[in-house]
């Protein structure tokens, strides 16, 4: 006879530790599903945010460029690469059978666990009926009731116990089998996550192929150049101001010299604190006295 | 003499279209900087969000796995790859000289434009002084004032005009030279953006090397298998429930059969709608009549 635990005062409640064990295992599995399923659902959004970011910056940098400008080719390579990646990312996001399949399995698995939880609750009726006859028979025997009545209730208890054992064992088996599936379903979810991410990075690498040579040359020129400034190839010695710029950018001073302006201002407007009207009045006064 | 536009009623204001042209060009450049600089600043955050996402999902999927479980190797490959990428991503984010350099140049360039805007405003004093003597001389001449006084003011106008032209031409040259720098600085920003993104994707590809074989085998097994279900290699035929699971997952039916439980329940609890207490009372009544 199974172990007995007190429920409320008199009637003892039969507890099946194995059943409770599998129910709590299934709860663990479901809490993982509840956290992973929505995240797997937002994986494409994470990549979209990235492709949008790269596209926005690349396009904004190109806004005021003209075909004739130096470095126009770098800028345009970036814009085209970002558009290429954006459309690849959109295609992968809306069209990934592996991920769809993994998501579907996760959701069906959650449904299966919830359905077992309902069975687990339904089973309480059978357990209550079994405990009812256990308690009742105890009472009849303690009160020394008549034999035929005891016999009748012994049969009822027998039936209730058979039902209880049948339902419990069937449920334990289902729960154990259901629980075992998580290894396969979670493995498939992990593969789906990595499969999508690999497709995205592969697409990014392909899309940025035309930008890479510019980046590589830029890095080379940075290395070969002792100054903190790269070679002419990418830092536009072709632009007439690149030389002065270099010196100016490379230190913290104001990037140009305003002394000439200041000199001119002070030299030309002797009492620049006075408005021209006051200035004029003084002049007039002076002139009258002439 | 430069074109004249009315300011407020009497005094006409001298306008230099070239200066206004360069000021508005510089405003265009600065609006790009103001938008791009903060975005370039958040590029690492975009990648961090991605690596966090991949790591969270991979780790949560591994939470209730045991070494002995089938597919443990796929799960662990994912966890290790996500950790590897997370640390690579963190390293790139905090240590990217190319991006730091591009950001610094963008900020200094913005400072340079703002400093020119201040010069542009300072120049108004010289312009006002020039316009003042133009207007004054006009009045003196219209009023037919005495020649010495007119001559004196002609000299003042001459000096004011020289100052005005010197300051204006100096500023125009500075503005044009400053504006030209955007091609080089924006190109460097674009290279910085792509350089970081390429490093990230390269690191992701490297980190996920150990996951790729699992993904590839999974894809192969999906292809070779006519059923929507992949081969045993990755779908754990080693797990005793994998076969029934497969059939059940592949259609929309509840993934297991509850009929047996329902049968048992209805068979064993004849009037399950009545509580056992009512049930018992009926019995007692019956028994008294015996």
UniProtKB/TrEMBL annotation, chains A, B:
<dbReference type="Pfam" id="PF03114">
    <property type="entry name" value="BAR"/>
</dbReference>
<keyword id="KW-0175">Coiled coil</keyword>
<keyword id="KW-0963">Cytoplasm</keyword>
<dbReference type="InterPro" id="IPR004148">
    <property type="entry name" value="BAR_dom"/>
</dbReference>
<dbReference type="InterPro" id="IPR046982">
    <property type="entry name" value="BIN3/RVS161-like"/>
</dbReference>
<keyword id="KW-0206">Cytoskeleton</keyword>
<feature type="compositionally biased region" description="Basic and acidic residues">
    <location>
        <begin position="275"/>
        <end position="284"/>
    </location>
</feature>
<feature type="domain" description="BAR">
    <location>
        <begin position="30"/>
        <end position="213"/>
    </location>
</feature>
<feature type="coiled-coil region">
    <location>
        <begin position="99"/>
        <end position="177"/>
    </location>
</feature>
<dbReference type="GO" id="GO:0015629">
    <property type="term" value="C:actin cytoskeleton"/>
</dbReference>
<dbReference type="GO" id="GO:0006897">
    <property type="term" value="P:endocytosis"/>
</dbReference>
<dbReference type="InterPro" id="IPR027267">
    <property type="entry name" value="AH/BAR_dom_sf"/>
</dbReference>
<dbReference type="GO" id="GO:0005737">
    <property type="term" value="C:cytoplasm"/>
</dbReference>
<protein>
    <recommendedName>
        <fullName>BAR domain-containing protein</fullName>
    </recommendedName>
</protein>
<feature type="region of interest" description="Disordered">
    <location>
        <begin position="226"/>
        <end position="290"/>
    </location>
</feature>
<dbReference type="GO" id="GO:0051666">
    <property type="term" value="P:actin cortical patch localization"/>
</dbReference>
